[in-house]
Amino acid sequence: xxxxxxxxxxxxxxxxxxxxxxxxxxxxxxxxxxxxxxxxxxxxxxxxxxxxxxxxxxxxxxxxxxxxxxxxxxxxxxxxxxxxxxxxxxxxxxxxxxxxxxxxxxxxxxxxxxxxxxxxxxxxxxxxxxxxxxxxxxxxxxxxxxxxxxxxxxxxxxxxxxxxxxxxxxxxxxxxxxxxxxxxxxxxxxxxxxxxxxxxxxxxxxxxxxxxxxxxxxxxxxxxxxxxxxxxxxxxxxxxxxxxxxxxxxxxxxxxxxxxxxxxxxxxxxxxxxxxxxxxxxxxxxxxxxxxxxxxxxxxxxxxxxxxxxxxxxxxxxxxxxxxxxxxxxxxxxxxxxxxxxxxxxxxxxxxxxxxxxxxxxxxxxxxxxxxxxxxxxxxxxxxxxxxxxxxxxxxxxxxxxxxxxxxxxxxxxxxxxxxxxxxxxxxxxxxxxxxxxxxxxxxxxxxxxxxxxxxxxxxxxxxxxxxxxxxxxxxxxxxxxxxxxxxxxxxxxxxxxxxxxxxxxxxxxxxxxxxxxxxxxxxxxxxxxxxxxxxxxxxxxxxxxxxxxxxxxxxxxxxxxxxxxxxxxxxxxxxxxxxxxxxxxxxxxxxxxxxxxxxxxxxxxxxxxxxxxxxxxxxxxxxxxxxxxxxxxxxxxxxxxxxxxxxxxxxxxxxxxxxxxxxxxxxxxxxxxxxxxxxxxxxxxxxxxxxxxxxxxxxxxxxxxxxxxxxxxxxxxxxxxxxxxxxxxxxxxxxxxxxxxxxxxxxxxxxxxxxxxxxxxx
Length: 763
Ligand SMILES: Nc1nc2c(c(=O)[nH]1)N[C@@H](CNc1ccc(C(=O)N[C@@H](CCC(=O)N[C@@H](CCC(=O)N[C@@H](CCC(=O)O)C(=O)O)C(=O)O)C(=O)O)cc1)CN2
Ligand code: MET
Ligand SMILES: [Zn+2]
Fold this sequence. Notes:
Zn(2+) 2 binds at residue 662. Catalyzes the transfer of a methyl group from 5-methyltetrahydrofolate to homocysteine resulting in methionine formation. The active site is at 691 (proton donor). One of its GO terms (biological process) is methionine biosynthetic process. Keywords: Amino-acid biosynthesis, Metal-binding, Methionine biosynthesis, Methyltransferase, Repeat, Transferase, Zinc. The protein is globular. Helix 17 (435-445) packs antiparallel against helix 18. The model is unreliable at 758-763 (pLDDT under 50). It has an eight-stranded parallel sheet. It has a domain at 4-71 and 129-380: TIM Barrel, CATH 3.20.20. Helices cover 43% and strands 12% of the residues. Helix 24 links the parallel strand 20 and strand 21 (658-661). The chain is built from 26 helices and 23 strands. By secondary structure, it is of the alpha/beta class. It binds the ligand Nc1nc2c(c(=O)[nH]1)N[C@@H](CNc1ccc(C(=O)N[C@@H](CCC(=O)N[C@@H](CCC(=O)N[C@@H](CCC(=O)O)C(=O)O)C(=O)O)C(=O)O)cc1)CN2, methionine and zinc ion. The site of zinc ion (ZN) has 6 residues, from loops.
């Protein structure tokens, strides 16, 4: 009997990012809705066909989306906040929830577990959810009629769906979950009636530290779902870590359990050994790494599979990637400029499907295990093992990195040096990456624009935006990051030990994609990366210009990282390289340096017991990069898309003089985190959401500032947007920043009046 194989989800974007291009063309009014639907269907079917041709038995359907799969679910359940009800047709409401409109702020967007993918957070208010469409059924029918595929509908399971939503109103969490059960039941009944065999219910929250009492709820819920559609095979799919409460989870009334044997290897394997696996269930074994890009070592994977076959018979085993392939690029084969040794060591989504199929064949037919010659070569390559880097590291780490003067003393020296007014204003770094900027870069890359002409172009942009910042009367300027494609890719291209692709795109949020660098070797500094542009900007103004670097933890977390040494070591190497850039910026007269760490939170392990170890090396890496500067050099850092409540202590240990944090898309809730904590360093709580084209009003921003002043001292508060402005247009940015400066002025005025009143009274 053939060992089954399966896939959990496929990248939506298409090998040439056709998906992104179609969406953006629609938003810009260049194509109409019919054309968009047609193009989306073409991409969807082509993705399915690709999987069919690879030899995948269980092909996921309904993982495809026009923006985000959580948003699809929300709309399917009619969880549409009232502010969007008037946005128009179904599609218009859908995109309004994702992107906001003039009248309505967008739904919150946040990270999907520990990945760089963002989902739209459903807002559960007191309304009753109803099933308005059966999307999985539609997707199943389409795959079947168009391509003859017996698809496996994929949906986020009820526990995870509610867990990842925001709850308003009085209903308890359990009540919310129960509200959805009849809706899920109906979806499943209809699928069963259609003759569907397997349905994948994604419950990645089962790998989190969930309370034991939730297992009762989950058991009850799955009992009901099973009874609703007893003929249907339910696959309870987990990923990104090993599951908690193994014994109870594997006893749930479902036919299949999906476990991640890559990222959850230790935990899942320990549980298998201890509790074994129920003989009446299928084990969907995540064997091929869906989060990283290195080609699998077939020998090691075969050993793992043989081990699993001690617990489950081959007729009840399915081989699959560890998670959806959403998190890796589409195909390696079209890359033309990669070093052959590196290229042959890689597997993206397409290649990973072949790996899955091949493993099944080897296992079944006892076929030949292909030795991974390229990976072996890479392992012994001098690029991987640089004595100079390793010596440097050992020397640097021989003492704990920390600033020589404590913050309270530094702050006084810095205030003397800079003389900032109360509530200083600044931005986060990037200004619009207009099509003009991208076009120029493309022309330069293709040799149509000379090096010199490109440099001149970048300088013009810097001049233009220094001028704009003067007009706006911001307090700390930035150069605008026009020379950067992306804050991580840019550094990846300039450091040694890191390769980059031409087309290795991965979806980050909505239509926005990133091309994560490939860290294959020891990372080393080779040349200055940022000094020229920042120093140039600094000559154009008397205001301080912030030097702008991406921090070591973020470069690590937003890259694909070699898997032969601990991530911690790689992070230190990056930190040591960036440390040299910091020194060079200081030497070039830059006295405010921002080291962005937006991915610090994202790297946090899903299980709390692993947090301390991670935070320890992450903080050390940041300090390695920044702590050697002069007392009067002000270190800024920036974070976005994060929940910081539970890691304020680590943030404080970074010892940055000023931190800017995203707050507005979580509708100001972050401010609460500071209520009972003593955070004494400089802090800018983002006063408006940059991910939406909506221009914020002076009043709402003034309100945000005042709200922050309830818990923070006016001496420590900075005023800034949530994040960089690269995705916005010039008009949007200028209008929003004008209002932001005005809001700061307004509050400053009120505050000074208030303060002088206090002084008068105390005299
Ligand atoms: N790595 C990373 N992760 C992150 C973030 C981040 O900034 N970087 N921020 C958060 C997510 N936010 C994001 C915000 C914007 C974009 C973004 O704008 N991405 C661009 C790609 C950026 C890029 O590399 N641009 C290239 C252009 C690539 C391109 O499309 N070229 C065109 C031609 C250029 C043109 O005419 O537009 C082509 O080749 O056909 C450049 O600047 O040079 C996009 O999707 O469009 C991505 C993520 C969290 N995770
Ligand atoms: C995702 S954080 C972005 C920080 C970067 N300095 C920018 O302004 O774009
Ligand atoms: Zn940011």
